[in-house]
């Protein structure tokens, strides 16, 4: 009985983490600076420093390595960052459930198939829990088509590849990562001449980036396979018919990143979130969830 009492007592004695302190910690970690975080939170750097000092004392761990112009997380700080983001999200969901105005209606979300698996399951699950009365209609398509539907008021939000040919970048950049050459691990397509490549149809940013790089490098190539969907391009690589420009984060075995010196560098590609003006409160809230999902990776 005494042992059980001691266990219950020790658990009850655990300190509770203050949500405002966690918000300060997460903001400092994301901005990499007490000064920049203080500007965002409308606090003084010294006030944030005191909060972090108390948090480190509470947990018995050093959370930041302080350098001349910026700060970086320690290993323990990296662990707490994951917990902190989740706790703040749960706190926001709980408050929204009881205090936020009830959202109703419909939101049309357009998304390209390269980002469907990245954020859509998480975003839809969280949004449905917080706002069950809102219907979300998802359309998967090419960036140019989604932007056209947005302009026709058929969509409220669109996640598209930024920098489409002949178009200025629209919306907010929410994700950026390297575009690299990919092929089968044990494949020989990369050794063939002319080099066989698989690309999307005209109007795709990946296609434009790849063709410009190949032409600039003076490489002998041919378009061996063409498909607008990532799954189709993956199929061509799995069959060792061709290699393809692909986001680094989407490459999975038996595909691999190709690092042959003869292949030209492709640089980064970006994803933009474009909103239709006047699309309503539900659309704005869903947009916030999308941005958060990309930020948290």
Automatic annotation (TrEMBL):
One MF term in the entry's GO annotations: DNA binding
Calcium as UniProt keyword: no
Pfam families according to UniProt: HTH_1, LysR_substrate
Keywords (A to Z) from UniProt: DNA-binding, Transcription, Transcription regulation
InterPro entries attached to this UniProt entry: LTTR, LysR_HTH_N, LysR_subst-bd, WH-like_DNA-bd_sf, WH_DNA-bd_sf
Sequence similarity: Belongs to the LysR transcriptional regulatory family.
UniProt name for this protein: LysR family transcriptional regulator
């Amino acid at each position: 009985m005494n042992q059980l009492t001691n266990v219950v007592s020790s658990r009850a004695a655990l300190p509770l983490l203050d949500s405002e302190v966690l918000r300060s910690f997460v903001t400092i970690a994301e901005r990499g600076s007490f000064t920049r975080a203080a500007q965002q939170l409308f606090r003084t750097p010294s006030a944030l420093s005191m909060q972090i000092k108390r948090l480190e004392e509470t947990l018995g761990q050093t959370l930041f390595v302080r350098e001349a112009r910026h700060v970086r997380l320690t290993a323990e700080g990296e662990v707490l960052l994951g917990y902190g983001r989740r706790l703040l999200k749960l706190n926001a969901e709980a408050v929204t459930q009881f205090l936020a105005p009830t959202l109703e209606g419909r939101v049309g979300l357009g998304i390209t198939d390269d980002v469907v698996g990245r954020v859509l399951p998480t975003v839809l699950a969280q949004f449905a829990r917080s706002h069950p009365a809102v219907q979300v209609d998802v359309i998967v398509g090419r960036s140019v088509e989604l932007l056209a539907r947005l302009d026709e008021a058929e969509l409220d939000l669109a996640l598209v590849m930024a920098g489409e040919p002949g178009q200025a970048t629209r919306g907010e950049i929410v994700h950026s990562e390297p575009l690299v050459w990919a092929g089968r691990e044990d494949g020989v397509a990369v050794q063939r001449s002319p080099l066989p490549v698989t690309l999307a149809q005209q109007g795709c940013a990946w296609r434009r980036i790849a063709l410009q790089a190949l032409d600039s490098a003076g490489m002998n190539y041919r378009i061996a396979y063409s498909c607008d969907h990532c799954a189709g391009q993956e199929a061509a690589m799995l069959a060792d018919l061709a290699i393809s420009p692909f986001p680094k984060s989407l490459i999975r075995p038996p595909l691999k990143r190709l690092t042959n010196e003869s292949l030209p560098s492709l640089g980064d590609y970006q994803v933009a979130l474009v909103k239709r003006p006047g699309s309503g409160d539900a659309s704005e809230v869903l947009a916030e969830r999308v941005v958060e999902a990309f930020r948290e990776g």
